[in-house]
């Protein structure tokens, strides 16, 4: 599976990463708002509600940071492509010859 993932274009990998971050965000949101407010916690009272509040907050924060970083990388790819297209190589000797002939 990792070979298939690495063969994809870089931009598509970033989009998959953003999708994964969104899924993690919703898992954290569910843990934070629904699991932590229950009186009967799903895992037999091993962990208290504070644990679920911390886990939910950490998941939400890391997924938001991941989305921001991946969006920044996608924008940097687009900027690099635009820079490459816009440049034209100009040689100084050719410019001097054109000016002398005119």
Distance from N terminus to C terminus (CA atoms, Å) equals 63 Å
Inertia-based shape: rod-shaped
Name the helicity range: over 70%
| Strand content bin | under 5%
Number of strands: 0
Instruction: Point out poorly predicted stretches.
Output: none
Helix-strand pattern, N to C?
HHHH
Largest β sheet strand count, sense and barrel closure: none
Oligomeric state of this protein: single chain
Taking all Cα atoms into account, the compactness measure Rg is 25 Å
Count up the helices.
Answer: 4
- Mean pLDDT comes to 79
* Class computed from helices, strands and strand pairing: mainly alpha
List keywords for this structure.
102 residues, mainly alpha, rod-shaped
Explain what this protein looks like in three dimensions.
The chain is mostly helical and 102 residues long. 78% of the residues lie in helices and 0% in strands. It is built from four helices and no strands. The protein has helices at residues 2-7, 10-35, 49-86, 92-101. The longest helix is centred in the middle third of the chain and has 38 residues, at 49-86. The chain is rod-shaped. It starts with a helix and ends with a helix. The model has no long low-confidence stretch (mean pLDDT 79).
């Amino acid at each position: 599976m990792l070979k298939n993932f690495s063969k994809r274009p870089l931009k598509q990998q970033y989009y998959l990463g953003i999708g994964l971050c969104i899924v993690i965000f919703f898992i954290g949101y569910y843990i934070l708002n629904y699991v932590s407010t229950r009186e009967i916690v799903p895992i037999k009272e091993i962990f208290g509600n504070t644990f679920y509040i911390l886990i939910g907050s950490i998941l939400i924060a890391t997924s938001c940071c991941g989305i921001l970083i991946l969006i920044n990388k996608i924008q940097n790819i687009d900027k690099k492509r635009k820079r490459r297209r816009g440049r034209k190589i100009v040689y100084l000797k050719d410019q001097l010859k054109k000016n002398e002939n005119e």
